[in-house]
Amino acid sequence: MYKDLENKVAVITGGSKGIGNAIAERFGQEGMSVVINYNSDEKGAQEAADNVKAQGGQAVIVKADISTEEGNQALLDAAIEHFGKLDVWVNNAGMEIKAPLTEMTLKDWNKVISIDETGVFLGSRTAVKYFTENDHQGNIINMSSVHQQIPWPTFASYAAAKGGVKLFTETIAMEYANKNIRVNSIGPGAINTPINAKKFADKAQYEKTVSLIPMDRIGKPEEVAAGAAWLASDQSSYVTGITLFIDGGMTLYPGFKNGEG
Ligand code: NAD
Fold first, then answer.
1. pLDDT tens digit string along 174-218?
2. Nearest-10 Cα torsion for 114, 119, 122, 126
3. Which DSSP symbol is given to 136?
4. Is the Cβ atom of 192 under 6 angstroms away from ligand 1?
5. CA distance to 63, 226, 248, 250, per residue, from 214 (Å)
6. What are 212-249's pLDDT values in tens digits?
7. Which of 95, 158, 165 to mutate to test the pocket of ligand 1 (most atoms within 8 A of CB)?
8. Domain ranges of the chain
9. Whose CA is nearest to atom 41 of ligand 1?
10. What's the CA gap between 20 and 22, in Å, rounded?
11. Would you give the end-to-end CA distance of the chain in angstroms?
12. Cα–Cα distances in Å, from 239 out to 11, 43, 174, 177?
């Protein structure tokens, strides 16, 4: 637990399930107040909010499409209205659409980019405007992926978006480094969340994924949330512009793990 996080206010996009839900729960344990954004799953968001309160934090849920300016503004407005300020903004919402390049429609490409990359831009801009206009210490955490680094055939839009998030994070981290605003990314590997439910239900696919992980297991959402709590806290006060990979070693070229090559 990080004492400095108590009473801090966070916005988490896509917080009704998966990694966002786990971050909300962890922030609740830290005694934080959390705006939990959801897109369609109101029940999941309400359960996440109840969980935050049960852990000792405060929470409100807000329906908003984070690929829009109004959606992100609504999240900031809710933080101010309910909790009086904003300290931490987590751009977590994301999605993927599988298609070989020649079958990838412009509509699907635009959808992935608008949520996974433009959503990160809009959320970051909303938060940084608030931090700078109010001369407030600020902290932004972007949920990237190991696929900001590892190419992923048939998921070119997702890899392009996450690759964009990497340089976007590094660039705005530098732009605001001397304004008391820190910006970092997290690069999860394969984590047990609804985004992977179908894939992991297939035993062969599950085992194939595990074979790509030096630690020989899928990660848990709370292991990603632990990284988010550290990045949000003052314990990482001299850290900006990094991607914290939480991936069981997936980015370490696992094909070489038995000394091959
Ligand atoms: P998930 O599908 O469980 O959760 C994604 C959340 O984003 C959902 O709540 C969904 O409703 C929300 N969302 C999607 N579009 C939205 C929109 N337009 N507006 C508001 N919310 C929207 O997936 P997850 O695994 O928890 O993924 C969270 C983040 O972590 C994503 O950015 C994903 O790319 C990233 N990630 C996940 C993994 C993994 O293995 N699970 C690995 C690497 C990166």
1. 999 999 999 999 999 999 999 999 999 999 999 999 999 999 999
2. 160
3. -
4. no
5. 38, 20, 6, 6
6. 999 999 999 999 999 999 999 999 999 999 999 999 99
7. 95
8. 3-246
9. 191
10. 5
11. 42
12. 20, 36, 11, 10
| Other beta carbons less than 10 A from residue 13's beta carbon | 28
Query: Residues near 237 by Cβ (< 8 Å), separated by ≥ 6?
Result: 182
Strands 9-12 and 138-143: unpaired
Sheet holding 138-143, edge to edge: 58-63, 33-38, 9-12, 88-91, 138-143, 181-188, 243-246
Distance CA 137, CA 196 (A): 35
Is 2 noted as a catalytic residue in this protein? no
Going from the C-alpha of 245 to that of each of 38, 228, 251, the distances in angstroms are 25, 11, 8
As beta bridge partners, residue 64 has none
Distance 258 CA to ligand 1 centre (A): 33
CATH superfamily ID and name for 3-246:
NAD(P)-binding Rossmann-like Domain (3.40.50.720)
